[in-house]
Write a structure and sequence with these properties.
Layout: H1 2-23, H2 31-49, H3 52-73, H4 86-92
Length: 93
């Protein structure tokens, strides 16, 4: 019975991540967090249902989503702007 609720919850959380990503707003970077939780729920569902191939597939999804979280949620390095050399500016004209 619990497995039935896990799969529906995984579906809803994954759909929320897709909506965040499709909206492409400031919260879009958190779509990968939703997908991570969705993948973990799918692994739990597969384990509770006795479906090892499905669990193995979703463990791969967890790994890919962890990489996505690393790429999207790390602090951005500030861009350093330096004034251009007047001689280089004149040469470019």
């Amino acid at each position: 019975m619990l497995a039935n609720y896990i799969d529906w919850l995984a579906l809803v959380v994954g759909a929320l991540g897709s909506l965040l990503w499709a909206h492409n707003g400031p919260a879009a970077k958190y779509a990968s967090v939703c997908w991570l939780f969705s993948s973990l729920l799918w692994v739990a569902f597969a384990w509770r249902s006795g479906l090892p191939p499905l669990g193995a597939r979703d463990l791969r999804g967890v790994a890919v989503t962890l990489y996505g979280c690393y790429r999207w949620l790390q602090p951005r390095q500030p861009v350093r702007v330096t004034p251009q050399d007047p001689a280089r500016r004149a040469a470019a004209r």
